[in-house]
Design a protein that fits this description.
By secondary structure, the chain is an alpha/beta fold. The chain contains 13 helices and twelve strands. Belongs to the ABC transporter superfamily.
């Protein structure tokens, strides 16, 4: 049986604004198999969440997919009508949003919001949906689930609200789960519980998971594959061992150097200088070159191509050409 689930090819997402068209995602391609976790990492504003909203068809009214295809289980989602996409969203593809306090409707009970996708997609009665909703709350570890069904989001803690979001996302046993910063604003203990829960449910349902995060510790714990984004572009992609043990792009190296090492008291954090460019900044060449300590003349004038490092590890950086031909090797961070 094939494990192929999602293939995204040359995705370009843009926004119409008073200043003209702004490109938020620029020609990225990636794939996710059944039972596989892909982590999309990068600083805030690099296009991670816009990528996930593009997959879900939930872009703001001024956003649109300019180019590319999203092939999910044999269907190109970019060609579906709004009605057809609604039938896929919530049933075959679900999403855990970044902030459950705003994602959950404050004037509707938890039970109402749990029953809604079950009744819509599974065509079951309210009584049966209520029973399945209680079972879902038990599955995600919420105590007294019958009582929680009649409560509102403001009556629950942050960790409980996040578990409710996971229960809603998993209500119809989706093939693909997108988790956008699922542990943001949660304490460390609750973070670990939420990540373990997602991992267990992924294994039970053989789901594909896309985890959007800027936390490299989360990546190390849950990822099978990693895609590093910068300024709307994919700059590096590979299995988790390759990314952590042999990062090739200076931006990926910078992200890893900014993670504290609690086992080494002499370790000093190294911040990446500068900041992400605005969407309307017209940067020629590599978009990271203004912040890159290894920038060469070609980096400032020509966008780098994607190099294949070892078959499963790819990087978009001119330094890879330097590595391959062996010249100026002492200038390259390893």
């Amino acid at each position: 049986m094939s494990n192929e689930l999602l293939y995204v090819t040359n995705l370009n997402t843009a926004f119409r604004t008073a200043d003209g068209e702004l490109s938020a995602v620029r020609g990225i391609s990636f794939s996710v198999d059944k039972g596989e976790t892909l982590c999309i990492v990068g600083e805030s504003g690099c296009g991670k969440s816009i990528t996930s909203l593009s997959l879900m068809g939930l872009l703001p009214s001024n956003g649109y997919i300019k180019e590319g295809s999203i092939d999910f289980a044999g269907r190109n989602l970019t060609t579906l009508s709004k009605e057809e996409l609604r039938k896929v969203r919530g049933k075959d593809i679900s999403m855990i949003f970044q902030e459950p306090m705003t994602a959950l409707n404050p004037v509707l009970t938890i039970g109402y919001q749990l029953r809604e996708p079950l009744m819509l997609h599974k065509k079951i009665s309210k009584r049966e949906a209520n029973k399945q909703g209680i079972d879902l709350l038990k599955q995600v570890g919420i105590p007294y689930p019958e009582k929680r069904m009649n409560q509102y989001s403001h009556e629950l803690s942050g960790g409980m609200r996040q578990r409710v979001m996971i229960a809603i996302a998993l209500a119809c046993r989706p093939q693909l789960l997108i988790a956008d910063e699922p542990t943001t604003a949660l304490d460390v203990t609750i973070q670990a519980q939420i990540l373990d829960l997602i991992q267990d449910l992924k294994d039970d349902l053989n789901m594909g998971v896309i985890m959007v995060t800027h936390d490299m510790g989360v990546v190390a714990e849950v990822a099978d594959k990693v895609m590093v984004m910068y300024a709307g572009e994919k700059v590096e992609e590979g299995d988790v061992e390759s990314i952590f043990n042999s990062p090739q792009h200076p931006y990926t190296q910078g992200l890893l150097r900014s993670v504290p090492d609690v086992d080494d008291p002499s370790f000093e954090l190294e911040a990446i200088p500068g900041s992400l460019p605005n969407l309307n900044e017209n940067i020629t060449g590599c978009r990271f070159h203004p912040r890159c300590p290894f920038a060469m003349d070609c980096c400032k004038t020509e966008s780098p191509k994607e190099y294949d490092v070892n078959g499963t590890h790819r990087v978009k950086c001119w330094l890879q050409e330097v590595r391959e031909d062996g010249s100026a090797r002492e200038k390259v961070a390893t």
